[in-house]
Amino acid sequence: MKTQRILRDNGIHEEDRISKLPDSILHHILSFLLTRHAVSTSILSTRWRYVWTSVPILDFTDLLGYYTGDQQVIRRFMNFVERVLLFRDTTSIRKFSIGIHQVCDDTRINAWISAVIKRKVQEISLTYSLGPPFVFPHSIFNCDSLTSLELDMNYCSLNLPSSICLPNLKILILKCVAFEANNLSKLLSSCPILEELIIEDCIWRGNMNIFCISSPTLKRLTICTPFEDFEEAVIKIYAPNLMFFQTISFSPKDFVFGQFSSLIGADIGTSCDTEFLTEEEKCNTSIKLLQALFNIKVLKVSCYFLTTLEYAKDIANRLPTFHNLIRLDMNLDYSCLNNKDEMLALLQASPNLEHLFLSYRSDDDEEHDSDESFWESINVIDFWVLDAAHIPLFSQLKTVKCSGSGGFAEIRMLSFFWKYARVLKTMEIACSIAFSIEDDTELTKHFLMLPRLSKSAVINFSQP
């Protein structure tokens, strides 16, 4: 073989073991490469000439850059895609990924999509960053073999055919898609076994009063929409088998939920920065969301979400009791010092909490100088002042992990958990690079001198 001859000419007499591997293993190896790299292996030897023609994954995401307007480059790109599809064998295609960042012939693009659909493609990922609307072939919305569909459309309208049937679609990812009227509901109703839905940076044409997601089979739902479309909308979610829910968006006018009895985890990052809702309306919406999540085991909240709770009256009695919650993640910043009561109420509502993860970002003026006055001032007053009713708060807390900058408020908060978590086993602190070895020593000394309920707790330091 040619490769073996090259090795001999260079004084290397090792056996070419890779070329002797079965085709199925070589196909698996090449499936991790971009298609242009997989095709280039055909020049290695006779053994490799046609191996690429059966690779189950076709990835054309790197071939046409964002900034080139060279028509020759565009023609080469389209010709290459067509040659690959033409010379590929008749085996089925597992995944087809392509990025269109320059003006191409829509007819040819549709022909490529139709070609892979005929090869029983299971996954399609299309990035389309051009302005003019792109009309998909109807076959992509009536594909029996499709299990995963990802569309990144640069805010182009999603034009749907009158008839849609995606009987085996389990994953639907929609990024930067512009929806018309009830297009999303129409699409979801045509996916009878959908399990995961991601809606990221999408927009809705015209006024949207109700945003409804209804799917009896849905297990994972992510809504990341920083635009203001949701501010005057009512979000309705009916997904009885939902296991994970993430929302990063402006606070909507209202939430309407079905039963979330199967929910395990949630990541809540709704923002209060909206002029359409009063502080009380934002607060009521956030509390209503938490009430729907009463059964979860893992919860992550942002500082923005905590801010929406600050106008709640008697918040401790309005929150549900999270009996199953064992892990709580809080992304905090300096502004969260104004939300200490809300943080405490959330902890109080989690009687079986075992693991607490804190990600803390302080302002520049919050950084400490690590002098004696800094360490002395930390012990002046607890971060929270507990009465007898709050003392059992941390009866199950075993782990506290914090990444941040080592600011005053951050260390005071950690000191609080160190003192009152009676079964604490580990506290892990990942401070910024600016936090020196001397600071680690002082911080260790500080914690070890504090009175604490757990005598077996250990403290570890690391870089974030």
From TrEMBL:
Signal peptide: none
Organism: Kingdonia uniflora
Cited Pfam families: F-box (PF00646), LRR_At5g56370 (PF24758)
Top-rank taxon, per record: Eukaryota
Protein name in the entry: F-box domain-containing protein
Domain F-box residue range list: 15-63
